[in-house]
Specification:
Shape of chain A: globular
Structural class of chain B: mainly beta
Oligomer: heterodimer
Largest sheet of chain B: 7 strands, mixed
Distance between the termini of chain B: 41 Å
Number of helices of chain A: 4
Helix content of chain B: under 10%
Largest sheet of chain A: none
Number of strands of chain B: 17
Shape of chain B: globular
Radius of gyration of chain B: 19 Å
Number of strands of chain A: 0
Order of helices and strands of chain A: HHHH
Number of domains of chain A: 1
Structural class of chain A: mainly alpha
Number of helices of chain B: 2
Distance between the termini of chain A: 16 Å
Strand content of chain B: 25-35%
Radius of gyration of chain A: 11 Å
Strand content of chain A: under 5%
Chain lengths: 73, 335
């Protein structure tokens, strides 16, 4: 999960050097992993999707939800 | 050269799954329009065949409408879609985003969560929509898709093994030729050994026809088959009882306007053609069933392909695998 959290945080922090293709690759990797999903993982997936589509408000909202459900925030 | 190139592609793919039907009335049945919605989408938003979008928080499918009633936080009225798209050849591996216009298997699965306390419309509410029928708004749509309970009221908990939620569902509406008297429907399906359904989860394909029943009551006629765990023993009702109208087979209407995506019939009659044992379908197998249509003209039917997730598993937020239902080239034939 750390990889995906880092990607979203990088996006929220200004975008870093990630390209749209990088986001799509990460999103695809995530979809391949999450056939055993939890609610928290779905929130992270949506946050990653939002990052891939350049939607910061949704990405932040769902990353916060993910962190809450993981007991991080 | 074009023919040579096509041949090389076929060779590199190896032998893939064949079409299910030579007279399929469904469109985009092989999901080959290069779209990959995951996460969430909106109900009743089937797109034109020219639609393409592979990622983002608002993604849809050409010709197929989502029918999930499991809501998220924001945007309002966004609901769940748990999909993986797989290559339809070789070892049926995960297909990537931007894979092009290739035929794909769709795999639907559960989510193990009700997203309690974090949604604009509460999913932890077994009698959501009680007393509302016809074309209702999201807040009055049923969260319960199937139940063996005879009564659901405000005291009914979603911590309940007798309730199922269609956490992911895809629907396609068709006009019925006036001359048609029967429908054959089915798909190629499998549940591989490493991805079996949990004991109380099930999946299936239904075809519904909405019409007026006795005393001109709006009535949903349902023909379906399901697939489930080999140890499961539950029996689903074949008709609505007075104590729980609207809690079975509610969901997508056959002709709903976009602003009122959910349709809840006042009652229904269901025919279960089979409840298959998942252990018999570890490899792709074509299943098909036939039923007689209600008579009339300008008729419509709708196919529903759904993952019925047990409410208790969702309430408990288990981390155990939900299992996944794989299907390829669903079809409807009229005769």
């Amino acid at each position: 999960m750390d990889r995906y959290v880092t990607i979203v945080e990088t996006f929220l922090g200004g975008g870093g050097n990630l390209t749209n293709a990088d986001y799509l690759e990460a999103l695809h990797d995530f979809v391949g992993e999450f056939s055993s999903p939890t609610g928290a993982m779905i929130n992270l997936l949506i946050s990653l999707e939002a990052a891939a589509s350049n939607n910061k408000s949704i990405a932040r909202l769902y990353l916060n939800k993910f962190n809450q459900e993981q007991g991080i925030a | 050269m074009a023919g040579l190139s096509g041949g090389l592609v076929a060779v590199s793919r190896g032998e893939g799954l064949e079409d299910s039907s030579t007279s399929n009335a469904l469109v985009n049945s092989k999901f080959n329009n290069d779209n990959y919605p995951v996460g969430y989408t909106y109900v009743d938003n089937e797109q034109a065949l020219t639609y393409q979008q592979n990622s983002g928080v608002e993604t849809f499918l050409p010709a197929w409408a989502s029918g999930s009633s499991l809501y998220f936080i924001d945007p309002q009225f966004a609901t769940m879609c748990s999909n993986q798209y797989l290559y339809s050849w070789g070892d049926y591996e995960l297909a990537p985003f931007l894979a092009g216009f290739i035929p794909r298997i769709n795999k639907i699965f559960g989510v193990s969560s009700l997203f309690s306390g974090s949604t604009t419309i509460n999913n932890d509410n077994a009698d959501r929509g009680a007393g509302n029928y016809g074309f209702v708004n999201g807040a009055n749509s049923r969260i319960v898709g199937h139940t063996t309970l005879t009564t659901i009221d405000s005291s009914t908990s979603m911590d309940n093994t007798a309730i199922w939620v269609d956490s992911t569902k895809w629907c396609q509406q068709l006009n019925v030729p006036d001359s048609a008297t029967t429908v054959k429907f089915g798909a190629q399906i499998r549940i591989p050994s490493g991805d079996k359904l949990r004991p109380l989860n099930w999946a299936g394909i239904a075809v519904t026809q909405d019409t007026l029943g006795p005393n001109s009551t709006p009535w949903r006629y349902v023909n379906y088959f399901g697939i489930r765990h080999t140890d499961a023993t539950f029996s689903l009702p074949t008709s609505g009882s007075l104590g729980n109208p609207g809690y079975n087979w509610a969901g997508q209407g056959i002709d709903a306007p976009t602003s009122s995506p959910f349709y809840t019939p006042e009652t229904f009659t269901a025919t279960e053609h089979a409840m298959l044992d998942q252990d018999d379908y570890e490899d792709f197998t074509k299943v098909e069933y036939t039923f007689t249509l209600n008579s009339g003209t300008s008729r419509k039917i709708m196919m529903h392909i759904f993952f019925a997730e047990n409410a208790k598993y969702m309430y408990d937020e288990d981390t155990e695998l939900t299992g996944g239902f794989q299907y390829y080239d669903p079809f409807i034939e009229f005769s």
